[in-house]
Design a protein that fits this description.
- The chain is an alpha/beta fold and 503 residues long.
- It folds into three domains: 115 residues, NAD(P)-binding Rossmann-like Domain (Rossmann fold); 209 residues, Dihydrodipicolinate Reductase, domain 2 (2-Layer Sandwich), CATH 3.30.360.10; 108 residues, no CATH class.
- The strands form two sheets. The protein has a nine-stranded mixed sheet with strand order 14-13-12-11-7-10-9-8-15, covered by helices on one side.
- α14 runs antiparallel to α15 and α14 runs antiparallel to α17.
- The chain is globular, with a radius of gyration of 24 Å.
- The site of nicotinamide-adenine-dinucleotide has 24 residues, from loops.
- Nicotinamide-adenine-dinucleotide (NAD) binds next to loops.
Length: 503
C-alpha cells in the first residue's frame, strides 16, 4: 500500500487477544501504522495460524503473559460475555482497548468498565462495525445535513440463524474437545447481541436509547440448546424509545430468514436498505417519489471496502488508530458503547418479565451509574463443558459430537431445502433454480449418511442427554426414511438432469 493514511511515522504496537475474529484485523493493521507484536488464544490451531501470519510476534495461551508484553493497544476479541473483565484487565496493564461487541454482559460490569476507562486515561473504543458500511455512512452524513429531518421510527434487523456456530469456532472447526459446545454462542439470548442493528440507528440519527421493552417469544428452532424459555434459537425483538422521541424496533435472533433489512422514517424523508439496495423516499409525503441511490464512499472508502465486512472492520480500526495517533475522538467511545449495549441487557429482562419497560440509564452520569453498581443480573449460562453428556459417558463416543452435529446440521438443511422446494416446485417462477438445491443435496449426501450413523451411535450411548436431544432434532429434519434409501442419489441425479434439460 503506497498511500500513507496518517501523516506521521509514529507506530502503534498492537496485541490481539482472541485469534478467531481477532485474526480478521491484523492484515488491516499494517495499513494503519499498527504493528501486530503479540497474540493470545486458548486454541492451539488459532495460535499456529497467527504465528504463521505474524512471524516474530509473541504468541501465548496465557493472558497474563500476553498483557505483560510491551505494546500499546489491544484488539480484544475474546468471548462475548467476558469483554468487560478482559477490557479492564487490558486497561490495568496500561493498554488502549478496541473491544469487540458487545461491551459488557451485566449492568454492574458496565459501570465498572466506564469507571476503569475514566480512571485509566486510556482510549477505549467499541468495534461496532455495522454503522460503517457504505450505506450507513452515507445515511449518517445526509442525516446530519438535515435531508431526512428528525428520526420518527426505524427498524433494523440482525437476524442470524448461525445454528452450527453453537458447535464450532468461527472458522468452522468443531469445538475442541468435541463433547463440549461453544462458550457463549450455544446459549446466549440474542438480545445480548444487539449492537449491529441498534448501533447504526444511533449513529445515523444522532440519538441515544432512553427506554426499552420486549415481549417474550418462546418458539425455538430445532437443534439449539436451552437454559430457559429465552435461550438461543428464538427471536429477540425490542422496541426502544430514542432521545429525540423516536421509536425504533431492534430485531435480533434466529429464525428461518436471515435478514439485515434496515428502514428509517424521518420527518422529511425515508430510507430503506433491502438486499443491498438503498432506496429513498424524498419529498416529505407518504407517496413522494421513491428512487434508488448509490451510496458513495467517503475518502478511503474504496480501500476500506477491500478489507472485508463491507468496510466496517477497516473503519473501526481506523478511528481507533486515529484517536491514538491524533487525538480525534472515535464515534464509539465507552459511553456510546454503554448506550448501545444496555438496551440488549434490559430487553432480555423485559422479555423475562413479560414486557415490562425499562429506562435506559446514561452512564455518563455518575449518579445514574450508582443505581446499577451492584446489578449483576444475567441470563443463566449453559454448562458448556459438562452440559451435553453426563460425567460417566464414554468420551471416545461423545467427543464425536461436535463434528457430527456440525455436519448433520448442514446435511439436514440440504435435505430440508430439497424437500420443501419440491412441495412448491410447480409454483416456482424459475423452476431451474431447484437444480442448485438438488446439486447441493447430491454433494452433501455421502457425508449426511455417515453422520446419521454417527448420531445414532451417540444417541444410543447417551439417550437422555442434551447432546442426544439436539442430534435427534436434526436427524428428524434429515429425512432418514428417504436419504438412506438405496438408489436415492441416482433418483436425484435423474431429477436434476430432467430439470436442467427442461430449462
Ligand atoms: N463485529 C463483527 O462483525 C463480529 C464478527 C464475529 C465476532 N465478533 C465478536 O468477536 C468476539 C470473538 O468472536 P469469535 O467469533 O472469534 O468467537 P469466539 O468467542 O469463539 O472467540 C473467542 C476466542 O478468544 C479466545 N479466548 C477467549 N478468552 C480467552 C482468554 N482469556 N485467553 C486466551 N484466549 C481466549 C478463545 O479461545 C476463542 O478462540 C465475540 O465477542 C464476537 O461477538 C464480532
Amino acid at each position: 500500500m503506497a498511500q500513507a493514511i496518517f501523516q506521521t511515522d509514529k507506530r502503534i504496537r498492537v496485541g490481539i487477544w482472541g485469534l478467531g475474529r481477532g485474526s480478521t484485523f491484523y492484515r488491516t493493521c499494517g495499513l494503519l501504522n499498527m504493528d501486530v507484536v503479540a497474540g493470545c488464544d486458548y486454541n492451539q490451531h488459532m495460535r499456529d495460524r497467527f504465528a504463521q501470519e505474524n512471524p516474530g510476534a509473541f504468541v501465548t495461551d496465557d493472558a497474563a503473559a500476553f498483557l505483560a508484553q510491551d505494546f500499546d493497544a489491544v484488539v480484544l476479541a475474546t468471548f462475548c460475555p467476558e469483554h468487560a473483565g478482559d477490557a479492564i484487565a487490558c486497561l490495568r496493564a496500561g493498554k488502549h482497548v478496541l473491544s469487540e461487541v458487545t461491551a459488557f454482559h451485566t449492568m454492574a460490569e458496565g459501570v465498572a468498565l466506564v469507571e476503569a476507562v475514566e480512571q485509566s486515561g486510556l482510549i477505549y473504543n467499541l468495534a461496532e462495525n455495522y454503522p460503517f458500511i457504505a450505506a450507513n455512512m452515507w445515511l449518517a452524513r445526509r442525516w446530519k445535513e438535515g435531508l431526512f429531518g428528525e428520526l420518527m421510527y426505524g427498524e433494523y434487523e440482525y437476524v442470524h440463524e448461525c445454528r452450527s456456530l453453537c458447535y464450532t469456532y468461527i472458522d468452522g472447526t468443531p469445538v475442541i474437545p468435541g463433547n463440549q459446545v461453544h462458550h457463549w454462542r450455544s446459549w446466549l439470548n440474542a438480545h445480548y447481541y444487539n449492537t449491529h442493528s441498534l448501533g447504526p440507528m444511533m449513529l445515523i440519527s444522532g440519538t441515544r436509547p432512553t427506554r426499552v421493552v420486549s415481549l417474550p417469544g418462546t418458539q425455538r428452532l430445532p437443534g439449539y440448546l436451552t437454559v430457559d424459555a429465552q435461550s438461543k434459537g428464538g427471536i429477540a425483538p425490542s422496541l426502544i424509545s430514542m432521545s429525540n422521541g423516536a421509536v425504533v424496533r431492534n430485531l435480533m435472533g434466529a429464525t428461518t430468514n436471515d435478514s439485515h433489512i434496515q428502514r428509517l422514517w424521518g420527518t422529511k424523508g425515508s430510507a430503506e436498505l433491502v438486499d443491498g439496495r438503498l432506496r429513498l423516499r424524498l419529498g416529505g409525503g407518504g407517496g413522494s417519489p421513491k428512487f434508488e441511490v448509490v451510496p458513495r464512499w467517503d475518502a478511503l472508502g474504496e480501500l476500506a471496502e477491500a478489507t472485508g465486512h463491507g468496510g466496517g472492520d477497516f473503519w473501526v480500526l481506523y478511528y481507533f488508530a486515529r484517536q491514538i495517533l491524533e487525538g480525534t475522538p472515535a464515534p464509539f467511545d465507552v459511553y456510546t458503547a454503554a448506550d448501545c449495549t444496555i438496551p440488549g441487557l434490559l430487553a432480555y429482562r423485559s422479555a423475562l418479565e413479560n414486557g415490562r419497560p425499562f429506562d435506559v440509564p446514561d452512564f455518563r452520569d455518575p449518579a445514574q451509574r450508582d443505581r446499577f453498581r451492584d446489578d449483576h443480573f444475567a441470563q443463566p449460562r449453559y454448562d458448556t463443558r459438562r452440559g451435553l453428556f453426563s460425567a460417566d459417558a464414554d468420551e471416545t463416543i461423545t467427543r464425536e459430537f461436535a463434528l457430527t452435529m456440525r455436519d448433520l446440521i448442514s446435511g439436514a438443511m440440504a435435505y430440508e431445502a430439497y424437500r420443501q422446494w419440491t412441495l412448491v416446485q410447480d409454483d416456482l417462477a424459475e423452476p431451474a433454480r431447484k437444480v442448485g438445491v438438488i446439486d447441493a443435496l447430491i454433494a452433501a449426501l455421502p457425508r449426511l449418511n455417515e453422520v446419521q450413523e454417527a448420531a445414532h451411535k451417540i444417541i444410543a450411548h447417551a439417550p437422555e442427554s442434551d447432546g442426544a436431544r439436539v442430534l435427534g432434532e436434526m436427524l428428524a429434519l434429515s429425512g432418514e426414511e428417504v436419504t438412506r434409501q438405496p438408489g436415492f442419489r441416482e433418483q436425484l441425479i435423474r431429477e436434476r438432469d430432467a430439470l436442467a434439460g427442461a430449462s
